[in-house]
Structures are given as structure tokens and as C-alpha cells.
Design goal:
The chain is mostly helical. The chain contains one helix and no strands.
Amino acid sequence: MAPRGDERRPNGGLTDEQIEAIKEAILASIYEEIGRSIVKKVLWYGGAVFAALVAWLVAKGYIQMGRP
């Protein structure tokens, strides 16, 4: 029989330790996703800057590409 009235436990019967463990797992997942997103953006921007730098150096004649 289901508990009634004052017998009901708040939070669906979870202990405070269980609630904290769930919160920590969710936050760890969120932080991991944010970290991956930041690393991906940094690598994309770094690659774009590197490509622009190489193109500029080729245009200025500091680097010769494809010429023997």
C-alpha cells in the first residue's frame, strides 16, 4: 500500500546523499559538454588563424608553395 499523508517522503523517497550524487553526475556531464565545446571552438579558430597566416606568408613571398 502506498504511503499517505505524513508518511510520504519528499523527493520521491530519495535520501539527501542520493540527491547529491544525482546532481553531481548531471553537473559533471554538463561541464564535460561545455569543455568539449570550448576545445572544439579553440581548435577551429586556431586552424583558421593558422590558415590565414600561411596564406598571408605565401602572398608576401616568405613561403613558396608548389614551386621547385
